[in-house]
């Protein structure tokens, strides 16, 4: 299943976003079901929001799963870059834990980041609300789950998520922060995903 690593050269600002974006678009066109996108911490937030903005502009609906930042913060970032949020929904695994805003009608709030089985259930519920014919799922980030779940549990969850999304023919992106990703986690993601896009120096 796994295809050759697409290495993205390091540049500045928009150059990084465009390089990664081209790889994501190619991944979708070539029929991948599950892609890992590994971004360095400096470019992580701007690049991830640009990917979402671009896919929404192509009339895809979206489900954004957040494990590390409250969905209200991500919505604010997307509004800043004028993304069309009309068909974007969230599964928020952190706001109830840290006492963030939990009133947004487009967001499903999960009580604890350890409740991994709730993620698939909530994706299924949100898929019914999406108006677009095609949609994507963005998982931000896998690193966030390593804080709360042991490696074996996380591997089982990613495996189930990957196979479920393949059966549903839903394009899914697993985001990772390059500096926080152990060799074991990177190896697991390369095994389970169709493509592994990463920033490389040089």
Please outline what is shown here:
With 202 residues, the protein is of the alpha/beta class. It has helices spanning 14-29, 44-57, 71-80, 95-98, 117-127, 142-146, 151-168, 183-192, and strands spanning 6-9, 34-39, 61-66, 88-92, 107-109, 135-140, 171-177, 195-200.
Keywords:
202 residues, alpha/beta, 8 strands, 44% helix, 8 helices, 21% strand, eight-stranded parallel sheet, disordered N terminus, globular
Could you characterize what this model shows?
This protein has 202 residues and is of the alpha/beta class. Helix content is 44%, strand content 21%. The chain has helices at 14-29, 44-57, 71-80, 95-98, 117-127, 142-146, 151-168, 183-192; strands spanning 6-9, 34-39, 61-66, 88-92, 107-109, 135-140, 171-177, 195-200. An eight-stranded parallel sheet has the order 1-8-2-7-6-3-4-5, with helices on both faces. Strand 3, helix 3 and strand 4 (88-92) form a beta-alpha-beta unit. Helix 1 (14-29) crosses helix 2 and helix 7 runs parallel beside helix 8. The radius of gyration is 16 Å and the shape is globular. The two termini are 28 Å apart.
């Amino acid at each position: 299943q796994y295809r050759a690593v697409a290495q993205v050269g390091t540049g500045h600002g928009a150059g990084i976003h465009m390089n990664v974006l081209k790889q994501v678009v190619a991944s979708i066109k070539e029929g991948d079901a599950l892609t890992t996108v590994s971004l360095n911490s400096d470019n992580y937030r701007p690049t991830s929001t640009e990917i979402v903005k671009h896919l929404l502009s192509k009339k895809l609906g979206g489900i954004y799963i957040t494990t590390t930042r409250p969905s209200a913060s991500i919505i604010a970032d997307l509004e800043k870059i004028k993304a069309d949020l009309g068909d974007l929904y969230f599964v928020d695994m952190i706001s109830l834990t840290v006492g963030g805003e939990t009133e947004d009608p487009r967001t499903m709030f999960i009580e604890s980041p350890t409740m991994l089985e709730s993620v698939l259930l909530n994706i299924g519920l949100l898929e019914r609300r999406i108006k677009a014919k095609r949609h994507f799922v963005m998982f931000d980030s896998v690193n966030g789950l390593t804080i709360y779940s042991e490696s074996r549990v996380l591997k089982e969850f990613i495996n189930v998520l990957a196979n479920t999304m393949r059966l549903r023919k839903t394009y899914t992106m697993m985001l990772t922060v390059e500096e926080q990703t152990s060799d074991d986690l990177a190896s697991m993601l390369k095994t389970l995903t169709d493509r592994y896009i990463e920033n490389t120096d040089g």
